[in-house]
Amino acid sequence: MDFLELAKKRYSVRSYTDAPVEKEKVDCILEAARVAPSAANLQPVRLVVIDDEKGMKKLGMAANTYSAPCAIIVCADHVRAWKRPTDGKSTADIDASIVADHMMMEATSLGLGSVWICWFDPDTITREFGLSESLEPVNILAVGYSDEPDKSPERFLDERISLSELTDTRAS
Description:
The chain has helices at residues 3-9, 23-34, 53-60, 92-109, 122-128, 156-159, 163-166; strands at residues 45-50, 70-77, 113-117, 135-144. By secondary structure, the chain is of the alpha+beta class. Strands 1-2-4-3 form a 4-stranded antiparallel sheet, with helices on both faces. Helix 2 (23-34) packs antiparallel against helix 4 (92-109). The two termini are 33 Å apart. The mean pLDDT is 95.
């Protein structure tokens, strides 16, 4: 399957089976995160992997994980992040988002479902998982076997803006 087919196959899963995610598949997802690009290759992202009932219960105090058996908290390390010299813009959130996207696509390629969660209480996550002051939880990736019917790759014809609306050719 080429990349565009994979991208069209991926969708947000909000209902999971009870089946645990195999360690080998979690390792592949984490490897996809490890090879993700980052600004100036500073790699200012840290991951908290949760794949047990106790950890998922703690995470559930801060976020709806849709009963997924596994989740990965994607944290930005603001101390390590590259900052744009002209205005000081930190790339920490951008780098964390790239990592999350790589993991979502790898999960899809492995036959797993995922959903990117950004509605959560960061203070609860920081407290419950003992995150250092330099780490900001940016998003959570819930992962597991989908308990939903697959969505059609053709849905993008109706659900997305047109390519002409997306692009601006003024710079040409």
